[in-house]
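Input chain follows. Return structure tokens only.
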Amino acid sequence: MLQLVSSRFSGAVRRSVLVASCALGLTLSAHAQQSATVIRLSPEDQQRGLNGVQKNFFFTTGDGSTEKEYQSAGFFGQRLRPYLAGNEEALDNLNRYRRQKWMYLAERLTFVGAVGLYSQQVLSLDEKQQYFNGTQKVAAGIALGSLLSNIFISRNTNSHFQRAVEAHNAGLPAARTGAVLRPSAVGLTASATGRPLLALTWNLR
């Protein structure tokens, strides 16, 4: 337990300090509670393996007994990020997941663009339609390369998200026993000279 004693304060200052202390305590308490929340993936998402489908994960901080409890983590997992605050390992894995999703998105746009270019070349010919001129060969090559890259991009994408959740849950005991400074009482005391002093009592938990 730490006790901090200030110098003499007016009534207005004492009230301001009291309000600020309470707000700080509530903020620290809410942050610690959120960081210590168990995260559960939907049963379907728990079974995703290598080269799994590329769609949003669903998670819950409840017991997962009903489907309505689950919420989407977002395309880049952004809705999960606040729950991982303070856990570097979990955040690193989530950042890798976000990076892979950006690569996946770029690959899909490249593939669609290559297919569009190929189709445009076919439809733009005035005479007999051709399906393998120089430009079409380039477009077909880009599309094929895009599909091949998709295999490598998608292989571990889902694993990064799952590891982020696992790292968060594995760190919960440390989060519960970590030191959190919380104000427990605010009052007045007297100095040796008889002057009133503002006393703040804090609990280190």
